[in-house]
Amino acid sequence: LSEIGSVLFVDESFIDFVVEEESYISLINHYPIFIMRSMTKFFAIPGLRLGYGIGNKELISILSSKKEPWTLNSLALRALPVVLDDEEYISKTLTWYENEKKFLFNELQKLDFIKVFESSANFFLCRLKGYDSKTLKDNLLKKNIYVRTCEDFIGIDDNYIRLAVKKHVENMRLIDELRNLKYREELCNEKKL
Length: 193
What we know:
By secondary structure, the protein is an alpha+beta fold. It is built from five helices and seven strands.
């Protein structure tokens, strides 16, 4: 990277959800790497826009000289020590997340029209069999359930969606609607015969 004057930008926005994976922090002093972290995902505070970057001193110095003077608002600054000191929230969130992620993965695996891929983040990439992502998304939107289509991801076509791990009741609702959607389609196909 240094030979071509480039910096590797690593997005670790979801790293707090991933206990078993390693960060790239150990490499920042050996390579031109900048790591971005978000606190809004794990702590569920998206409106505060709280995050930080990690890099070697030289890279941070260059970036600091080019940034605007106010990168954090006063609410985010006030929230920072509160969220970092809330060990009970961190522990409960990790326990909840691990259980809910397993539940959602197992339930998605039971659906024959979805191939779910294992994930280190708090969402799953799924390949649809017999559906395109837009049709599935439109059907679920009628039930006020939003899924992320992936047709704009490089190397992925319109047969892929991304499903986030959410509260149990929301995950159950998603699974129920996916089952119902498949059931309704099968009924329609039987009537056509």
